[in-house]
Write a structure and sequence with these properties.
heterotrimer, A alpha/beta (554), B mainly alpha (324), C mainly alpha (399), B: mainly alpha, 14 helices, globular, C: 399 residues, mainly alpha, 2 domains
Chain lengths: 554, 324, 399
């Protein structure tokens, strides 16, 4: 019996330790991970950034990136010891029996060669197929992955094909030699939700069809719930727990896993609708804008009321951030105007008064680029205090300390630090404090949580909610993530191609009937239910999900 | 096409800059050339001969029109000589173009020989250093190229003279080439200046090639190729090289442009009869037409090479070769 | 010809030797991964490296043991090896010293420093001290014409030297050592001033263009494009021709003109860099935040942009200094640079250059011009080593 089990085992990793080099010293980044994978099985590997997921994924191919090395443990693929195998032996396996799908397909395809030539390279080099056989097989795979125009798409260069299509073409390339194992390294992270769902569906189908074993690496629980048979959770190079998907989702054992699961449960009750005659804090009034001659916004209008959060939702290129630029005056609209407390604002920020500028503040997506790396925290927060309120010396310091208290950072400990000495979540808090320092009525939050790990992001959302209640702030919340919308918004504005598609109260928006685009957007967000994708496909059919459906909408 | 136009426009503006600069000389220029002892009549006649008393604009266009036909006027040194000899300056004297012609060929020969040695040599070293980066070889290459970049050309020249011409008399100290020489003899004569320039240019080219290749090897598609189990040789030839072409061509053209500056000092050290040496002599004698002409030729070559770098790197970029 | 045949033989013979070496090591170490996965090309490289090292060692052995009279053939080789070892040792000791002396910050800095960078810092320090205190160190004045001309360096009377003039005297009897020391003051000082001027012009215009953009940026950028289309040395020579006439006209030392001309030409390169660095910073969100706060231009440039541009600008300052220094040396060497009788290394090389031809029978005589040229090279090498280390460090931190 045990013998049979062993034969069935494709990949066996024991006590894998990996070191990475930083500043001329080697630090352990993976501290002994075990991993078993049977033929045809799909393992989901999840964890936050820095958990070592990709490193483990690559190491199970016997590969380490420059500046990393395997310092202990064993990796056995089908009985072959990959840690001690010679370069030649490993080369025989890579591409032929173990394949890899990278996060960014656009960067991982060689720009100098056509897709099909890169597809056939593996099979011809490993002597699996002749070039023409492999070409025909490639076209067949493209068809199975539902790439548009499968007969000719392979004869294009990578930059001539869109991101979601490239990701599928890369899956086809990984399949070219019919490997036993494929490592998927965050294959859909860079894609919009409507594109992601299509790629997920086609990857899952083809992996099942050829009974390929796979390791699916991602930070998104809902995605991994659709793809994997079992899930392993990593935290800072340590294994937290492993179980099959359903058990893991319904009954996680470890506290860390439970907290990950609980993130999505944060949801603020919606506030009652405002009185019809109330003056909005900010009114975006029929704004049309263009970058040079390229039009980006068409007749956008919405209101933001006191103490409310308006979430502006849309995929990349929908004009969310451009709307914010119009409100702040960085991009003066061609037509329409912005009202603040019923008074029209000058279109260009340079023409606005200091008080007008003070009232509208902004928090940015990338806290790294939003804080001057050469300024101390005290100076970053102190500057608006001094600039707008005229406080100096001890009074200024006192105010800065109050602000640090408000964002839940110990003043004495942080006031003299540089941004580089803080974690991502702490930096984002400093960004919030800087906005608060101006004592504004209105704050634009531009994707403030999308660069953060889920647990940290949740903390930021809770803080923003608390501040709103305490200070009666109005938020414009730009995001592409519907879970965030659910958590914090009072009202929702859905944008597509520079137009407002639908707007209304949050509870109304998450209940049918929807505008078709809103419906598609909502239906494309993976849920923490292993049957979600199956149900969706059963309900709508393959041709009515993702970009295909967007195209149908015209 | 647009870039070609831009290049020509730049050249035109540069010619104006050169002309204006030269004509910004103070006082009576003819007087300055002929010295305080010259009679007013002689100065007047000299001015007349050179056409110095006509409007600037006319002179600029005449000069430019001449330059296009490779007619750069008469050298002052010759005109001056004619003045003292009492003959008519315009007749029977060598023009600037005649002075420049053979020297231009010599300089091209020197630059060509240098490029022939330096380009393959430095690209090989650069690629090797990138492939085996942080190895002993890379470090030695790094330190020695840094040293050779840092040394003034004349220092390198004298070191080479010392070891290859004086202590071990393999090559001649002076490069007195002339048109009657056989090619092998000519190469032997030119080898030492060419080697000096090679040292300078190789260092730059090797470092830039190394940086370009390292940059390229770090790209995800190279990792992808490795993960497809392709042999290291094939990764280099098929995946790295087609993409390395654009940066390497750029490096070559930029460094050939750099050669132009290097040529001046090296020609002076080796008394090599090229444009650089003529230029320096004319600068010292304040022979304005020659200085103008040399300056224009150098600038034109420089602009041309930079333009070539631009165009070739566009041509070798697959994204631009196969538009959407 | 036999030399070439020998080199060819070594190049060919190294291949089988490399193969044998690899095979031998593979079996000796029981197929350890290091040797098992070594390509033949790498093994070949090791063999060639070993041959070159052996050849250098053999030549050095000859240079120490060979007869030194009548002609000391290996004088330069021996001096070079000794100089190399001496400098390497000094740099190593200096780094060791730096690890134990100074503040915690500098000690940490020295601990992670390659020897080349330590060498660079050491040399720059020595040059700075020599050029600042030139008047105190130099035994004679820079323009002082002493009794005897053309005294041979080395201070050995038997070979035409004079202990009073350890590095000899030049063709009109000035002490070469004193002129070298004063040369440090003149050449380095002038180059430093020029670089500062170039940075002041190029840096301020570059940041202004990056911050304001619009037509001002267009005008300056296009002007810089045109100025950069003329090779720097050629342009400098052209302008120096004119400057010389002006200098004579007004009786001003042409060195001042040279400083301004080179500063302007070099400021174009500084402008490009400052503008590029500035543009990279200007797109950052913290600049947008400051703009939206209503901050003025002065605050933006001095408080937000400049502090973040210091690292690349400092590295560029080093490279620019080298470039300016070499340009000035070249101009002086060509006879249109720093005006005599000020002592200056470029001019010294030119004046003493004919002595190089005596190297075959009197090596010491030939060393005089090389000393001045070497002094130039040593400083630029030192600065480049330090800049290379700085760049490496800042790029390493980013990864």
């Amino acid at each position: 019996m045990a013998q049979l089990m062993d034969n069935d085992l494709l990949l066996k990793v024991r006590g894998l330790k990996i070191e990475g080099r930083a500043d001329e010293t080697w630090n352990q980044i993976v501290n002994g991970v075990d991993l078993d994978l049977k033929k045809g099985e799909v393992l989901g590997l999840i964890g936050e950034s820095g958990a070592g997921k990709s490193t483990v994924g690559l190491a199970s191919m016997g590969f380490t990136r420059d500046g990393c090395r395997i310092s202990g443990g064993s990796v056995e693929f089908d009985g072959i010891d990959l840690v001690n195998a010679s370069a030649n032996v490993k080369r025989q396996l890579l591409g032929k029996r173990i394949a890899y799908v990278a996060q960014s397909a656009a960067a991982s395809f060689n720009p100098a060669h056509k897709l099909i030539d890169q597809h056939t390279e593996g099979p011809t080099q490993h002597g699996v197929m002749s070039k023409s056989e492999s070409e025909n097989d490639g076209i067949e795979l493209y068809r199975k992955l539902r790439l548009p125009d499968p007969d000719s798409i392979g004869f294009r260069y990578p930059h001539q094909v869109s991101g979601g299509q490239l990701q599928r073409a890369m899956t086809a390339m990984a399949m070219a030699c019919r490997p036993d194992l494929i490592i998927f390294d965050e294959p859909t992270t860079a894609l919009d939700v409507t594109t992601q769902i299509e790629v997920l569906a086609s990857i899952r189908e083809i992996v099942e069809e050829y009974n390929t074993a796979a390791i699916y690496i991602t930070h998104d629980l809902a995605v991994v719930a659709q793809m994997a048979d079992k899930i392993k959770v990593l935290l800072k190079g340590d294994e937290v727990e492993e179980a099959d998907t359903r058990t893991m989702l319904s009954a996680p054992k470890e506290d860390y896993t439970k907290s990950l699961w609980a993130v999505r449960s944060f949801e603020r009750p919606q506030k009652p609708p405002v009185a019809v005659d109330a003056t909005p804090v900010v009114r975006v009034h029929n704004v049309t804008a263009a970058y040079g001659t390229v039009p980006v916004l068409h007749d956008v209008s919405f209101d933001i009321h006191e103490g409310r959060t308006v979430a502006v939702v849309g995929e990349s290129g929908s004009g969310k951030s451009t709307t914010a630029r119009c409100i702040t005056g960085l991009l003066p609209p061609k037509q329409g105007h912005i009202e603040f407390d019923g008074q029209p604002l000058p279109l260009d920020y340079r023409k606005r008064t200091k008080d007008q500028l003070r009232q509208a503040q902004m928090i940015y997506q990338m806290a790294d680029t939003a804080l001057n790396p050469r300024s101390k925290i005290g100076d970053i927060i102190g500057r608006p205090v001094e600039f707008y309120l005229g406080l100096k010396g001890a009074a200024k310091r006192k105010r800065v300390e109050e602000l640090l208290d408000q964002i839940e950072l110990e003043p004495s400990q942080y006031i003299d630090r540089l941004p580089s000495e803080l974690s991502g979540g702490q930096k984002q808090r400093i960004g919030i404090a800087r906005a608060l320092a101006a004592e504004p009525k209105f704050i634009i939050c531009d994707e403030v949580t999308s660069a953060l790990d889920q647990l940290v992001a949740e903390g930021i959302l809770r803080l923003l909610a608390k501040l709103q209640d305490d200070l009666k702030l109005s938020y414009m919340f730009i995001t592409h993530d519907l879970a965030t919308v659910k958590a914090i918004a009072d009202e929702v504005v859905v944008m597509k191609d520079g137009k407002v598609v639908e707007q209304g109260l949050k509870n109304d928006m998450f209940q049918p009937p929807h505008h078709p685009y809103t419906d598609l957007l909502l239906s494309s967000v993976p849920e923490m239910d292993p049957d979600w994708l199956d149900n969706l496909l059963a309900e709508r059919g393959v041709d009515n999900i993702g970009d295909a459906a967007v195209d149908k909408m015209g | 096409m647009q870039r070609l136009g831009l290049g020509l426009l730049t050249l035109l503006v540069v010619s104006i800059v050169i002309f204006v600069a030269v004509n910004a000389l103070p006082g009576d220029f003819a007087q300055a050339i002929l010295g305080q002892g010259a009679t007013p009549e002689a100065v007047a006649a000299f001015r007349e001969d050179l056409g110095l008393n006509r409007p600037y604009l006319t002179r600029y266009f005449e000069w430019l029109a001449g330059a296009v036909r490779f007619d750069f006027g008469t050298a002052y040194s010759q005109a001056q000589f004619a003045e003292f000899a009492g003959s008519d300056a315009g007749s029977g004297l060598g023009s600037v173009a005649e002075m420049l012609g053979p020297r231009f060929r010599n300089t091209i020969f020197l630059a060509g020989l240098t490029a022939l040695i330096a380009v393959p040599f430095s690209i090989t070293i650069g690629v090797l250093a990138a492939l085996y980066r942080n190895s002993v070889f890379d470090r030695v290459a790094n330190i020695s190229t840094l040293t050779s970049i840092s040394s003034p050309e004349f220092f390198l020249a004298y070191i080479l003279i010392l070891f290859l011409a004086v202590i071990n008399p393999i090559l001649p100290v002076l490069s007195l080439v002339n048109d009657e020489m056989a090619l092998t003899e000519r190469i032997r004569m030119t080898l030492l200046p060419a080697l000096t320039l090679t040292l300078v240019v190789t260092a730059h080219m090797m470092r830039m090639t190394r940086a370009a290749i390292i940059n390229l090897l770090a790209s995800p598609y190279i990792e992808m190729a490795r993960l497809k189990g392709i042999s290291p040789m094939r990764v280099i030839v098929r995946h790295a090289l087609p993409n390395a072409l654009a940066p390497i061509i750029n490096v070559i053209a930029l460094n050939l442009a750099y050669l132009i500056t290097g040529v001046v000092v090296v020609e002076v050290v080796f008394v090599y009869p090229g444009i650089g040496q003529l230029f320096v002599d004319s600068v010292k004698n304040r022979d304005i037409p020659v200085v103008q002409a040399c300056c224009l030729i150098f600038a034109a070559a420089y602009i041309l090479l930079n333009l070539m770098a631009d165009i070739l790197s566009i041509l070798s970029n697959p994204r631009l070769r196969h538009p959407k | 010809m036999s030399t070439w045949m020998m080199i060819l033989a070594v190049v060919v013979a190294a291949a089988p030797v490399a193969w044998a070496m690899r095979a031998g090591l593979q079996s000796a170490t029981g197929n350890a991964p290091k040797w098992r996965d070594m390509p033949l090309s790498v093994a070949y490289g090791y063999v060639i490296g070993a041959v070159i090292l052996a050849w250098l060692a053999y030549t050095y052995y000859l240079s120490v043991t060979a007869e030194r009279t009548p002609v000391d053939t290996y004088f330069f080789f021996r001096t070079a090896v000794h100089g190399f070892v001496l400098f390497a040792a000094a740099a190593w000791v200096f780094r060791l010293l730096g690890q134990y002396v100074g503040t915690a910050g500098t000690r940490k800095l020295f601990r992670n420093m390659p020897v080349t960078a330590a060498f660079g810092i050491l040399v720059i320090l020595i040059y700075a001290i020599v050029s600042i205190f030139a008047g105190l160190i130099a035994p004679y004045g820079q323009e002082e014409v002493l009794g005897s001309a053309n005294v041979v360096p080395g201070g050995n009377p038997a070979m035409g030297g004079n202990p009073e003039f350890p590095l000899g005297t030049d063709q009109i009897g000035r002490d070469i050592l004193s002129r070298l020391i004063y040369g440090a003051q003149n050449t380095v000082g002038i180059a430093f001033a020029t670089t500062c001027l170039a940075f002041f012009i190029g840096g301020s215009l570059g940041f202004l263009a990056a911050t304001l953009q619009g037509w001002l940026d267009q005008v300056i950028s296009r002007t810089v494009d045109v100025l950069m289309a003329i090779p720097a040395l050629i342009f400098a020579l052209l302008l120096m021709t004119i400057a010389t006439v002006w200098a004579n006209e007004f009786g001003i030392n042409r060195t001042y003109f040279m400083v301004v001309i080179i500063a302007v030409i070099d400021s174009t390169r500084v402008f490009r860099l400052a503008r590029a660095v500035g543009l990279n910073i200007v797109v950052m969100d913290y600049i947008e935040a400051a703009k939206l706060r209503g901050e003025g231009l002065g605050y933006l440039i001095f408080k937000e942009i400049l502090p973040n541009a210091t690292a690349p600008l400092l590295a560029e300052f080093g490279l620019r200094f080298c470039f300016v220094f070499l340009t000035i040396a070249s101009l002086s060497f060509l006879g249109v640079g720093i005006q005599p009788p000020l002592a200056d290394w470029g001019t010294m090389v030119r004046d003493l250059s004919q002595f190089i031809n005596f190297a075959a029978f009197a090596p010491q005589v030939a060393s005089a011009p090389l000393l001045a040229a070497g002094a130039i090279a040593l400083l630029t090498v030192a600065v480049n080593f330090v800049v290379d280390w700085m760049l490496h460090k800042s790029s390493g931190l980013k990864e």
